[in-house]
């Protein structure tokens, strides 16, 4: 139904997933990184520890759909990268609303309309350093020292 879920695997059955857990935001609502009815698709995600607190956070790329769907206040009207900070624990995650990620120069990443396929570049402690992003134009972009945009 478009909700972000966590699944667990088992080495005895490597082709099966178990224990669907719908991830929740801090308002106890299911997390969505795509919109509703026509504002769906083109989301990619990765896991990192953005704020070095030992708890996993979600970084993802999304097209213009995020702002059109009104899922996240502050969503940008173009394809960009977002982060959801986990305010819960690794065992019981609870996410803040998605926030746009800015380039090293402080400006939001802007890949126009449709796609921002992200690959997070992490250090040895799983902290987010850079983003490698594929755009709808067929090009790849490397954004160094990314940070949360000031809102």
Number of helices: 1
Structural class: mainly beta
The helix content, as a percent range, equals under 10%
Q: So what's the overall shape?
A: globular
Overall strand count: 12
Major sheet details: 5 strands, antiparallel
- Poorly predicted residue ranges: none
Query: What is the topology, as strand order, of the major beta sheet?
Result: 4-5-6-8-12
The secondary-structure element order is: EEEEEHEEEEEEE
- Fraction of residues in β-strands: 35-45%
Rg, Cα atoms, Å: 15 Å
Whole-number average pLDDT? Answer: 86
Offer a quick outline of the entry.
This protein is 3% helix and 37% strand. The protein has 1 helix and 12 strands, in the order E-E-E-E-E-H-E-E-E-E-E-E-E. The longest helix has 5 residues.
Characterise this structure.
It is a single chain. The protein is mainly β. Helix content is 3%, strand content 37%. It is built from 1 helix and 12 strands. The chain has one helix at 65-69, and strands at residues 5-9, 17-22, 24-25, 44-48, 57-62, 80-84, 94-95, 99-102, 116-122, 128-135, 140-143, 147-148. The chain has a 5-stranded antiparallel beta sheet with strand order 4-5-6-8-12, with no helix packed on it. The protein has a 3-stranded antiparallel beta sheet with strand order 9-10-11, with no helix packed on it. The chain has a two-stranded antiparallel sheet with strand order 1-2. A hairpin with an 8-residue loop joins strand 4 (44-48) and strand 5 (57-62). It is globular, with a radius of gyration of 15 Å.
